[in-house]
Amino acid sequence: MPLIEVKLYDTRVTDDSVPKIVEALTDALAASSGASKEHIWVIVEGVSPKNWGVAGKVSG
């Protein structure tokens, strides 16, 4: 069971974006790995910018 975990700013995790993200990532992994789409799992998680850091600094 291939599993893709995606973490984004919570503002990017919407009812419109999640299905598009899941479909695109599933298609890409199936095409690149040969895994069956039925076996690919995708988890999309929203994270508050105040809990996200880049280069030693908090983003939000």
Describe this structure in words.
The protein is α+β, with helices and mostly antiparallel strands and 60 residues long. It has a single domain, classed as Macrophage Migration Inhibitory Factor, CATH 3.30.429. Helices cover 28% and strands 30% of the residues. It has one helix and four strands. The strands form two sheets. It has a two-stranded parallel ribbon with strand order 1-2. The chain has a two-stranded antiparallel sheet with strand order 3-4. A hairpin with a 2-residue loop joins strand 3 and strand 4. The chain is elongated. The mean pLDDT is 96.
What would the keywords be for this entry?
two-stranded antiparallel sheet; single chain; 4 strands; alpha+beta; 60 residues; elongated
